[in-house]
Amino acid sequence: MRERNSEVLGKQKEVETIRDLVEEMKGIEKGLTQIMDDLREKIERLKKERVELLEEIEEYKKTGETKANTLKKEIVLLRKEVESLKQILDDNE
Question: Which string of DSSP letters, residue by residue, matches the chain?
Fold first, then answer.
């Protein structure tokens, strides 16, 4: 009888241990699920931010190109003006 009681108690302890392990695993799974959800949100935010930054970079490129073209035109005009002034000075000599 004692042997039988000992077996029953042993099996009960095993069952309790398995239940505890299952509960612990459920907690771990819940934590991992939360981490995955958080990471997905962060990834989506970063993707959106990346797109916004790429658009901003394109705007700066266009602005820079426009300014560079304007400066080129100004340089051409200044060179023409320098050439004209040289000619005027040469004609006056």
Answer: -HHHHHHHHHHHHHHHHHHHHHHHHHHHHHHHHHHHHHHHHHHHHHHHHHHHHHHHHHHHHHHHHHHHHHHHHHHHHHHHHHHHHHHHHHHH-
- The pLDDT value recorded for residue 14 is 79
- Counting beta carbons within 10 angstroms of the beta carbon of residue 59, is it exposed (0 to 12), middle (13 to 18) or buried (19 or more)? exposed
d(CA 84, CA 69): 23
State the Cα–Cα distance between residues 31 and 26, nearest whole angstrom.
Answer: 9
Q: What's the pTM?
A: 0.58
* Nearest to 54, CA basis, from 38, 93, 62: 62
